């Protein structure tokens, strides 16, 4: 009865073709129904039905990602069939689904051994392919002897696949080198091109992991390089020599001649020609003849219309650019022309080459060329250009920058380039230059002012970090500003509501710095100056003295107070707190500003508060090392890995709110309560602003209407994204940039300014490579095998040398007395033996692998 059911199931079973036709009909539930059928069919005892079900499951797993791990045991059952068609389906399913954690992995060992010893070369081939895919440590150890036997098989198909599986066996079981390596090396002398291609491919992969271990095989590889006519084999051999020559420079001179011969051939393939050029650029660049020939041949790639070949030519130049920049300069026109290519990969590689040519003499010219390309490029490539300029110019603490005024202005112009999205990088460099280069602060403040007064930049979220840096620089170095009033007005313009709250807080703090600086200049002046906001500069051009009249300082204070009144009730606590702090400071000193005009008394409460704030802001900020936090020593007894669940109980007293206490200072002594009473007496927050403030607001709106949002817009800024979308089209255009904007200015001969550098930590600390050295055991095994190969020859040479020395000693014995001859003979033998032992020990320690003299 069971056999009849199995027969019926096999007769009406859907084949793989039926499954594919059903999938093409597009039924949504077809896959789930097919899986149910497969689960039912694969449990049957008939191997034909089981194999077809497994074949369909493999198809669904490959194309639709269906999990087939549950069918691992059924795949082992299908592999045990005597029919080749079933074995092929089973091995394919095993290679597709098995992993190191598969529970039934141990069941496949005996079946693999049986098929590896089969007389059918196709079954052996299936077993080798499966071993190459799923080979584990245990499988590689248990099947090493079978692989060794197949490496000497008389059937080319079997031997070729056995050579390929050696790579997996060596990786999983390094001790297999002792068994199989000698026979693998013997296949290097095979005349069959397929076998030679397979064994060279294996050695190419092994050499990439540890080239030093394979130096003794250099003569065999050299013979293949000279005699072979197969481009694929030659490419692999060139890759091997590129690795070997980098650690053994003496090979370069020997290998350069055959490489040049391949490059001089008329009908040489492009792939082989490119590999020869890359080998010369990477490992044979010290050979002048080969290098010049490779540079001449690379032009064929650069002028070719095929973008793939053009990219390869640019990529090859990037390899040699670091050591031989003249090779890139000779092809400068082709590199610049490639910047206009349609292929983005070609343009990107040309950009990397241009940045490799940058130095302090041509940085201005190359930056001008690249910025002109950025103006007319797509957003992606535009930002690649800007990012490359930023990286090249900031390398090694701006080593190639001589004129920092030019570079700061270039950073400001980058913000106006369409599609610029490098705000974070530009922000970092603006602040970094301000802290490192004192001579650039005057230009930095000028550029920051130009950015702050441009309202079109407020609508671009990618430029908000740049505006943050500009606001910080304008407040930190306000003493270099020509008009502090204009800076404060730009910092508090109504359109700043488009900025994130974190940046608005920086704007408020910078406005506070401007206010403190202006009040300090006003209160410290002995006599009032006639022109408002006048500026006088010393002969050096860096020290700026600002003079303020009563009217000018009153206008500044009123403008800041008016701009911060609306911010004192905002939702963001940081913005609200900073605004109220500034308003409180203004409320404390506002009534004494008028008294300063009539009284010369400097010991007032406001003057002491202003002097204190000046001292707070007077400390100059410097660059901070990126590794500063790591240099802080850990306190004794600090356990970072301990469980901190009891922290609240331990630190109960510390975490409890501290009792209010009154703080007093020698410089500042004012009461918050008095300030509140004074504010309540002057005006209530619910009352409209005074007439003077209203008139100032109306006058400001009339003069600077550009800064104000449209009165028809909703003033509810809680949903900023909606406002951004509504007002983005009404922003005035940013300052237009022409192609001539980036032309270098007339050079002025002046020394390079001082750049503050840290002893260490300027560059970000690189994490150590986490990859473990898994190939050390394999390298040691291969070195041992190669050392053993030449051990017999070395012993034979030592025996010949000893016999010759003994003959010389015998002649000396006949010419002298027996006593003298005996002493001399014993002394020479002992000294020679000791010297040989010492030389042997030194050689084993310093030179574990030597290159044969035959090649060198």
Automatic annotation (TrEMBL):
One Gene Ontology cellular component: Golgi apparatus
SUPFAM superfamilies noted in UniProt: ARM repeat
InterPro entries: AP3_complex_dsu, ARM-like, ARM-type_fold, Clathrin/coatomer_adapt-like_N
Cellular compartment(s): Golgi apparatus
Signal peptide (UniProt feature, chain positions): none
Chain ranges of the Clathrin/coatomer adaptor adaptin-like N-terminal domain: 28-491
Region of interest (Disordered), ranges: 708-856
Keywords: Golgi apparatus, Protein transport, Transport
Compositionally skewed regions (Basic and acidic residues) per UniProt: 713-723, 757-769, 791-807
One GO-annotated biological process of the protein: vesicle-mediated transport
Function of the molecule: Part of the AP-3 complex, an adaptor-related complex which seems to be clathrin-associated. The complex is associated with the Golgi region as well as more peripheral structures. It facilitates the budding of vesicles from the Golgi membrane and may be directly involved in trafficking to the vacuole. It also function in maintaining the identity of lytic vacuoles and in regulating the transition between storage and lytic vacuoles.
Subunit structure of this chain's protein: Adaptor protein complex 3 (AP-3) is a heterotetramer.
Membership in a protein family: Belongs to the adaptor complexes large subunit family.
Protein's name in the database: AP-3 complex subunit delta
Gene source species: Brassica napus
């Amino acid at each position: 009865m069971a056999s009849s059911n199995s027969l019926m199931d096999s007769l009406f079973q859907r084949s793989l073709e039926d499954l594919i036709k059903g999938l093409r009909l597009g039924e949504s539930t077809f896959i789930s129904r097919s899986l149910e059928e497969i689960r039912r069919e694969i449990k049957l005892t008939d191997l034909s039905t089981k194999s077809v079900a497994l074949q369909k499951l493999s198809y669904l797993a490959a194309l639709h990602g269906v999990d087939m791990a549950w069918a691992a045991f059924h795949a082992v059952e299908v592999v045990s069939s005597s029919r080749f068609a079933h074995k092929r389906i089973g091995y394919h399913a095993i290679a597709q689904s098995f992993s190191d954690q598969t529970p039934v992995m141990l069941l496949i060992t005996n079946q693999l051994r049986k098929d590896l010893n089969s007389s059918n070369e196709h079954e052996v081939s299936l077993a080798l392919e499966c071993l190459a895919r799923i080979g584990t440590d245990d499988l590689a150890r248990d099947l090493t002897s079978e692989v060794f036997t197949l490496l000497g098989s008389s059937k080319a198909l079997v031997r070729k696949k056995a050579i390929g599986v050696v790579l997996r066996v060596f990786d999983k079981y390094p001790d297999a080198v002792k068994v199989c390596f000698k026979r693998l090396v013997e296949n290097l002398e095979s005349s069959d091109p397929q076998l030679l291609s397979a064994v060279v491919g294996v050695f190419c992969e092994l050499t990439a992991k540890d080239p030093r271990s394979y130096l003794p095989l250099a003569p065999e590889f050299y013979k293949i390089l000279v005699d072979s006519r197969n481009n694929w084999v030659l490419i692999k051999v060139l890759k091997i020599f590129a690795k070997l020559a980098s650690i053994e420079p003496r090979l370069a001179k020997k290998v350069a001649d055959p490489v040049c011969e391949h490059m001089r051939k008329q009908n040489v393939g492009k792939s082989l020609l490119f590999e020869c050029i890359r080998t010369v650029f990477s490992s044979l660049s010290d050979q002048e003849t080969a290098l010049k020939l490779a540079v001449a041949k690379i032009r064929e790639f650069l002028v070719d219309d095929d973008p793939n070949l053009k990219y390869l030519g640019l990529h090859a130049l990037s390899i040699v650019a670091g050591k031989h920049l003249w090779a890139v300069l000779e092809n400068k026109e082709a590199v610049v022309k490639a910047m206009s290519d349609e292929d983005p990969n070609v343009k990107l590689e040309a950009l990397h080459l241009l940045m490799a040519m940058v130095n302090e003499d041509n940085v201005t010219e190359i930056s001008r060329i690249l910025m002109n390309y950025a103006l007319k490029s797509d957003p992606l490539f535009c930002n690649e250009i800007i990012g490359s300029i930023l990286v090249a110019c900031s390398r090694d603490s701006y080593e190639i920058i001589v004129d920092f005024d030019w570079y700061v202005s270039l950073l400001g112009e980058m913000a106006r380039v369409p599609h610029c999205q490098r705000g974070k990088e530009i922000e970092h460099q603006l602040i970094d230059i301000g802290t490192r280069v004192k001579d650039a602060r005057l230009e930095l403040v000028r550029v920051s002012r130009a950015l702050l007064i441009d309202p079109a930049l407020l609508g671009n979220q990618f430029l908000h970090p740049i505006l943050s840096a500009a606001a910080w620089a304008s407040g930190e170095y306000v003493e270099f500003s020509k008009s502090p009033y204009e800076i404060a007005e730009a910092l508090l313009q109504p359109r700043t509501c488009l900025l994130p709250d974190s940046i608005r807080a920086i704007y408020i703090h910078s406005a506070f710095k401007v206010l403190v600086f202006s009040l300090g200049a006003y209160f410290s002046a002995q006599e009032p100056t006639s022109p408002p906001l006048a500026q006088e500069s010393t002969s050096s051009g860096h020290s700026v003295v600002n003079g303020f009249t009563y009217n000018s300082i009153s206008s500044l204070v009123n403008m800041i107070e008016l701009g911060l009144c609306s911010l004192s009730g905002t939702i963001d606590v940081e913005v609200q707190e900073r605004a109220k702090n500034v308003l409180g400071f203004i409320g404390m000193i506002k009534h004494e500003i008028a008294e300063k005009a009539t009284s010369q008394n400097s010991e007032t409460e406001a003057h002491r508060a202003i002097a204190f704030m000046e001292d707070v802001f007077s400390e100059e900020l410097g660059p901070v090392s990126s590794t500063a936090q790591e240099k802080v020593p850990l306190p004794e007894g600090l356990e970072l890995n301990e469980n901190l669940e009891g922290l609240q109980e331990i630190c109960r007293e510390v975490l409890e709110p501290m009792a209010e206490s009154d703080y007093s200072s020698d410089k500042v002594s004012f009461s918050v309560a008095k300030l509140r009473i004074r504010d309540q007496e002057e005006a209530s927050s619910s009352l409209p602003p005074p007439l003077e403030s209203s008139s100032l607001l109306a006058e400001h709106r009339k003069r600077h209407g550009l800064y104000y949002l449209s009165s028809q817009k909703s003033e509810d800024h809680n949903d900023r994204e909606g406002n951004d979308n509504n007002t983005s089209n009404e922003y005035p255009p940013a300052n237009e940039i022409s192609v001539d904007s980036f032309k270098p200015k007339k050079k002025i001969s002046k020394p390079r300014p001082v750049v503050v550098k840290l002893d260490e930590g300027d560059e970000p600390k690189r994490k150590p490579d986490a990859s473990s050295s898994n190939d050390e055991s394999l390298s040691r095994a291969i070195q041992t095998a190669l050392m053993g190969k030449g051990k017999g020859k070395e012993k034979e040479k030592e025996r010949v040398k000893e016999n010759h020395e003994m003959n010389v000693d015998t002649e000396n014995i006949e010419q002298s007395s027996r006593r003298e001859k005996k002493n001399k003979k014993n002394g020479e033998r002992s000294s020679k033996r000791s010297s040989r032992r010492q030389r042997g020990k030194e050689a084993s320690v310093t030179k574990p692998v030597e290159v044969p003299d035959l090649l060198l």
